[in-house]
Amino acid sequence: MRTKFLSLIAGLLFASILSACGGSSSSGQSVSTGVYKDAGIVSGLQYKTATQSGVTDKDGTFRYVPGETVTFSVSNVVIGQVAGAGTITTFDLVGITPPTSSSGIPLNNPASKKFQEAANISLFLQTLDDDSNPTNGINIPSAANNVVANTPINFKTYADIFAIRLYNGFRDSPQFKVFIGSCRTAKVWSGGKVIAQSGIALNNLYKGLGITPTVYLQSKSTNSDNSYFTY
Description:
Structural class: alpha+beta
Oligomer: single chain
């Protein structure tokens, strides 16, 4: 009896160790881990698959069973979904390879719209970052996942053909601004929060992915006294 009891305890301990290591799902399938990257490793981002769910940890890690689709979100705002992989970037969410020259993003065509969508998602994530410094990683405060967007946020927000306004269509959208305002009211951040600049966010995204493009975007920033500068 004593031998059987010890064998039972050993079996339970072994099962607990496997569970803690995330070796398999409840269906017995092998569980893999991946990392989400934008302008930096993204932590605090919600994810969900058919068998796994949680938030990305400090290393940007999420879990999935090979073959599953991973849906990423902040509260009820879905930023995109894609097949699970060892590394997922914002460009993967929209299904394009990051263009490295202006010829890769001609205006008013499907490639340009996918690029804008990726830029909008990146702007959203970088604005939520707790210290507004995505170069050291993007950390989405847990409180942001409790703020409900009452109006759907559309990352497929496109503007007109003028480059200076093209990538500010999402930044200036009421739905996005209302959500950030709701986060401020909920004190998601300890201090004030400024919405990231579109051009700077794109620059941070490329730097974070280690890509040096020959893509240039003229952007404009207006100050409180209505003076402005372009970059």
